[in-house]
Amino acid sequence: MKILLKHTRTQLYVRDCGTWTANPIEAHNFQHSQNAMDYAREHNLTAVQIAVRFIDAQFDEVFPIHPAHAATAHVARA
Fold this sequence. Notes:
The protein has 78 residues and is of the alpha+beta class.
């Protein structure tokens, strides 16, 4: 399983800081949804969602990130 950040309009995935890719295999694996939310907040990414990718694509899921939720989740962990 991979935890990725996917841009809602372009459908591209975060590869590394400042670069994007259409290929989910090349995308950065955040390994945990909280890591993905923290990255989105720290880099001011507002039009992204969490994409959970499995070996069997029929189980893939996409979840929106609500900016307020990402901010409060980070504060709660501090």
